[in-house]
């Protein structure tokens, strides 16, 4: 079964970029444009990896992460928190909310490809 | 338990004591003096009588010595006034005759030899304890020896011994009886006087003491905390007590005043402390907010700058690494292009804002006609195909001379028009209205002549709580498009520009009925109006005006 990658970000270009990268590498890709939709979709689809933007209107990334991680059904989703804010405290907040990884924008697509294979090629 | 004596008590006791002692002393002295007087009177009288009697009967006594006669004589003498006993003794102190002499006294022994001139007095007691004043008178053949003439004196001195002695006794009780008779009246009189004096003394003392007692009582109450008590008696006295009373009240008044002051001061202080605490709390809160805002601002700036970069970087790499068809390639390159522009605009806006806020902006102020500036802004946007229809609602037919940085004011108009376009529907009309006014706007800090530019749209409107917030940095408002096209800094920069020119910028809006953005710029005074018209003409020529 193909691994599923999900992108939750209010920036449509980011969604387009990450989804294309995921699909090019052979994974399925789904997306949501805000936190509320993101939560719903994640619970429903149970992706293997979730790219989560930290700053969004309404429910922000931190909240989504906390909620997913506190639920046994969604806890195992690998959350990569993305931030464009550049504060040193952001990483802390991210990890405290339960994120598995933290990264800043702009990101490098090459590194994203590499990361995805690292995470998702391990088990069959 | 004996109660402690108060001041009145002390005065009374001491007065009574003194007066009593005085009275006693006086009484004793009087009595004694009386006694002495009476006694002397008696004795003198008796002596006189004895002398006369002796003179009259000298020969009988000294020579004849007929017992019968002697008896008769002694009785005779005794019968006279207050003489208790008479005895005639010979030279050997043998009683020749006596009358009334108590037995115990007859055995007294030899009578004192009176070698002196006059009679001798002594006090003797009988067995019963009765007291007698005894006069022993020597009798000489030549006479009593009592005459005072000098012959007798010299005779006696020559050693003429007495032929006989006469002993006469006066009962002490006689004297006491007289005393008892006379003294009481006397004593009563001055006792009365003493008593009156005592009464007056006590009354005076009480009068002095009363205010003092009152003061003591009031003082006790004041020291217990009741500062409203005052001395009410004795204030009118002219002496030290009166002074004390008045001063006491003054002191109490002063104390009460002080306490009032202290209370007021204390209350004031507490109020001030509370105020200051509130101020400090407030300031602290604001500082914290500011701090948070600052970090929020930095976060936001970072976010806004990184977002286009994310697209640029991301799509650039995709273009490099992925197999793409022609349309997709073009599209991605286009995105990179547009996002670069966006980033550029953003950076430019941010720097503008920073410069303006730090007063590092260089302004080029020139004279111009506001109408021209506005129409130029409109034309640019029309040329870019941005707006279909802008209606100039009212433009004055006469020039609107202003002294402005043309580019910047144009920037403001462009910003407002751009927002109007963004938030209007396709068919919605945008109207521009310009007119003169006498105030700068809602705040109206400096009355004067201004011109206002109003840009109206028929968009969704702005709720009241947002009307101030929209002028803050990075305010984006409700998103009507998938992709933010603005920087969120337009209105903030516009406000800075307008403020720098001395005008105001604000919005009037109702939900669902559109918004109208106003900004004002001061009208340039007519050249004739300027004090220094030479300067004005020069400025006209050079094109510069006003402050930079």
Describe this structure as you would to a colleague.
The complex is a heterodimer of chains A (about 120) and B (about 550). With about 120 residues, chain A is an alpha/beta fold. Chain A has one domain (about 5-120): 3-Layer(aba) Sandwich (Rossmann fold), CATH 3.40.50.2300. Chain A contains five helices and five strands; from the N terminus they run βαβαβαβαβα. A five-stranded parallel sheet of chain A has the order 2-1-3-4-5, sandwiched between helices. In chain A, strand 1 (about 5-10), helix 1 (about 10-25) and strand 2 form a beta-alpha-beta unit. In chain A, helix 1 crosses helix 5 (about 110-120) and helix 2 runs parallel beside helix 3 (about 60-70). Chain A is globular, with a radius of gyration of 13 Å. The mean pLDDT of chain A is about 90. With about 550 residues, chain B is α+β, with helices and mostly antiparallel strands. Chain B starts with 6 loop residues before the first helix and ends in a 6-residue tail after the last helix. Mean pLDDT of chain B is about 80; it is low at about 150-155. The interface of A and B includes residues 17, 87, 105 and 109 of A.
Largest sheet of chain A: 5 strands, parallel
Look at the helices and sheets of chain A and give the structural class. alpha/beta
Q: Output the strand order for the largest sheet of chain A.
A: 2-1-3-4-5
Helix/strand order of chain A: EHEHEHEHEH
N→C terminal distance of chain A: 8 Å
Number of domain modules of chain A: 1
- Report the total helices of chain B: 12
- Rg from Cα of chain A: 13 Å
CATH superfamily of chain A: Response regulator
Low-confidence stretches of chain A: none
Strand content of chain B: 5-15%
Going by helix content, strand content and strand pairing, the class of chain B is: alpha+beta
Short descriptors:
heterodimer, A: alpha/beta, Rossmann fold, 20% strand, B: 548 residues, alpha+beta, five-stranded antiparallel beta sheet, five-stranded mixed beta sheet, 12 helices
